[in-house]
Amino acid sequence: MTETRRIAFTLNGEKREFTVSPDEKLLPLLRRSGYKGVKSGCSEGGCGVCTVIMDGRAVLACLLHAFQADGREVQTIEGAGDFEAPHPFQKALVEENAVQCGYCTPGMVMAAKALLDKHPHPSEERAKEYMDGVFCRCTGYEKIWSALRKISAPAGGQPHGS
What pLDDT sits at residue 138? Predict the structure, then answer.
């Protein structure tokens, strides 16, 4: 018999409680709790499609044990924006035609959100650091970068160092 444990954390702004097993990862916990926007890709931390934000940092939900979220703040794509009020990066992705199959999009949005929350006008190097690890197999990235530049450049300028 597997021993379970109760944990609690703030999920998309709402305090939630869960029962988890010691070996359960955060990704399946989120998905079984109805947060289907968090995608399962490689389950090894190599593709980034499971990216969520924990305490302001982009993290891979497939690598974290669920109990590591206890007492923390977690945000999924469901908490980043919706059709009525999309996150600026979601809107820019659509405007730049940067979405094809859409499988990587939640991870991309969460990585970009973590970046922009801390560095609204990041340098190209910093943007690459935050976005590295979220792989898109469809777009070739240029339109994704155009969308990110569109919302992160200072008014009338190019992205700068931060």
Answer: 86
